[in-house]
Amino acid sequence: MDKEFLAREAARLRDDPVFREALSKIRADAVERIIAAPAADTDKITELQALARACDRLPSELEAMIQSAQPRQIPRAV
Question: What is the pTM of this model?
């Protein structure tokens, strides 16, 4: 896939309120399940932490895709 296509799709997802709401609900559910999980169940807690972390990271990854399609300006020597 080319960078322009990825940037358009990333911007569409970033601006989609349904997508943002779904991501927010997934993260909130993971956090609630972490809170309710027994402290001894470290595998489950780690899995849920990874899910919440992925939800947190997704918006910045979309921004990176959008920025990667922008033309780069080469600094000029003065």
Answer: 0.79
Q: CA-CA distances (angstroms) from residue 27 to 31, 41, 57, 68? A: 6, 19, 11, 26
CB 78 within 8 A of CB 22: no
The domain limits of the chain are 3-68
According to the model, what pLDDT value does residue 69 have?
A: 80
Write out the DSSP string of 6-44.
Answer: HHHHHHHHHH-HHHHHHHHHHHHHHHHHHHHS-TT-HHH
Q: What is the mean pLDDT of each run of 10 residues along the chain (78 residues)?
A: 90 96 97 97 97 96 90 76
How does DSSP classify residue 70?
A: S
